[in-house]
Amino acid sequence: MDAETPAVLVLPGPVRRDDVPGLCADVRALLEAGRTGVVVCDVGGLGPPGLAAVDLLARLELTARRAGGRIRLRNPDPALGALLDLVGLRFQVEGQIEEREPALGVEEAVESGDPAV
């Protein structure tokens, strides 16, 4: 692993409550060993999404934030993404462009007749 490549943690499924502390320790250790401040969590093997998966991802993100980093999801099931949205959790997904402000000099289209702001 070089300085620019984030560490990858493959999350096995199904998720059991007993697995959570060990996976949190893995995230903490990967962040301490790496320099990117990101751990990519491959969630493709988690199986059908449920509240156990949501709880695990929330705890992993909290652990990463406390260690000064964050997690990024790889291979999420669309249903998992919908469930995370439903409970109000937002994660960066590998391959998706981050939402941000438009570049300087880019103006949004305005309908004629709109009042000036």
From TrEMBL:
<dbReference type="InterPro" id="IPR058548">
    <property type="entry name" value="MlaB-like_STAS"/>
</dbReference>
<dbReference type="Pfam" id="PF13466">
    <property type="entry name" value="STAS_2"/>
</dbReference>
<feature type="domain" description="STAS">
    <location>
        <begin position="1"/>
        <end position="113"/>
    </location>
</feature>
<protein>
    <recommendedName>
        <fullName>STAS domain-containing protein</fullName>
    </recommendedName>
</protein>
<dbReference type="InterPro" id="IPR036513">
    <property type="entry name" value="STAS_dom_sf"/>
</dbReference>
<dbReference type="InterPro" id="IPR002645">
    <property type="entry name" value="STAS_dom"/>
</dbReference>
